[in-house]
Amino acid sequence: MALVARVRALLLPGSRLRGATLGRAANGGGAGARRALSHRVLVEADPAAGVAVVKFRNPPVNSLSLEMLTELGICLEKLENDKTVRGIVLTADRPGIFSAGLDLTEMCGRNPAHYAEFWKAVQELWLRLYQSNMALGAAINGTCPAGGCLLSLTCDYRILADNPKYTIGLNETQLGIFAPFWFKDTMVNTIGHRATERALQLGLLFTPAEALQVGLVDQVVPEDQVQSTALSVMSQWLAIPDHARQLTKTMMRKATVDQLLKHREADIQNFVSFISRDSIQKVLQVYLQKLRKKNH
Ligand SMILES: CCCCCCCCCC/C=C/CC(=O)SCCNC(=O)CCNC(=O)[C@H](O)C(C)(C)COP(=O)(O)OP(=O)(O)OC[C@H]1O[C@@H](n2cnc3c(N)ncnc32)[C@H](O)[C@@H]1OP(=O)(O)O
């Protein structure tokens, strides 16, 4: 289903996204701050600063399900069309888990059409974020594996909470799957080829100190200062004239974006045939069961 159709489905009577509003904040935020609510994404906009904080709230682990991807896409599109917003900070509504990555239940026991729809939505969100004209910051206030790490890597800078429990990285190989070329390219663009090769083959999840050392994040700060630091760094990015910053960003990212645009359909087909393999379904199911067993 294309984004428009998925949005329609989400707006059907009964959907909690229906009637989402952008109103004056009941509390918090500076003068004129606005809050918008959808089911899984909370937006706190501060027009005076030109910044919106986009908070993930898809319990229990902020996984990127098809619905979450769609809501995030809608929310980002709205912000892109809002002339008062020049920068966005992505964060988790509740500290602890920034995002557990792609929702594994979307990749297990479904049919090929579902896998294709899901992967298209992952591509769309990546394209929207990686090509965004806005300045994007990640305030990483929790653990950040795989697709969660990818989300943060689409941003222009990353601030990570100084908590050794919070790890970050593309750990796909540890699950028995692997990061597709555009995940890899996004990481190469951030930490370089050799560090990416090692990180991806070993499926490394870096502690804050390691992430800072390898350049996966720009700053590690006390947990209660992650959002405020991300906002203060944002003011440096917004001090640069938009057109100059945007042209530079496009120049830096265009080759990577073009690769996916050129191979978009093939990438979907490759994903569908890979994820549909019996052997891959089996490893994903075992991984999910292990996660679930912990709690039962
Ligand atoms: C030629 C081919 C070319 C194409 C190649 C394509 C290759 C495929 C690429 C696919 C890319 C995938 C990227 C991904 O993002 S995969 C997801 C990776 N994520 C993880 O490994 C994280 C897994 N989760 C955890 O480690 C932990 O949950 C946590 C985030 C550290 C949190 O721990 P905590 O103890 O607080 O919570 P629980 O573990 O108890 O989890 C609570 C419940 O949430 C469920 N859960 C967790 N993570 C996920 C997830 N990613 N998706 C769905 N569900 C998840 C977990 O099962 C618990 O459920 P329960 O309440 O029913 O027990």
TrEMBL record:
Pfam families: ECH_1. It catalyses: (3Z)-octenoyl-CoA = (2E)-octenoyl-CoA; a (3E)-enoyl-CoA = a 4-saturated (2E)-enoyl-CoA; (3Z)-decenoyl-CoA = (2E)-decenoyl-CoA; (3Z)-dodecenoyl-CoA = (2E)-dodecenoyl-CoA. GO terms for molecular function: delta(3)-delta(2)-enoyl-CoA isomerase activity. Keywords: Acetylation, Fatty acid metabolism, Isomerase, Lipid metabolism, Mitochondrion, Transit peptide. The keyword Isomerase applies. GO terms for cellular component: mitochondrial matrix. Signal peptide: none annotated. PANTHER family: ENOYL-COA DELTA ISOMERASE 1, MITOCHONDRIAL, ENOYL-COA HYDRATASE-RELATED. Homotrimer. Key enzyme of fatty acid beta-oxidation. Able to isomerize both 3-cis (3Z) and 3-trans (3E) double bonds into the 2-trans (2E) form in a range of enoyl-CoA species, with a preference for (3Z)-enoyl-CoAs over (3E)-enoyl-CoAs. The catalytic efficiency of this enzyme is not affected by the fatty acyl chain length. Belongs to the enoyl-CoA hydratase/isomerase family. This is Enoyl-CoA delta isomerase 1, mitochondrial. It comes from Orycteropus afer afer. The lineage of its organism: Eukaryota, Metazoa, Chordata, Craniata, Vertebrata.
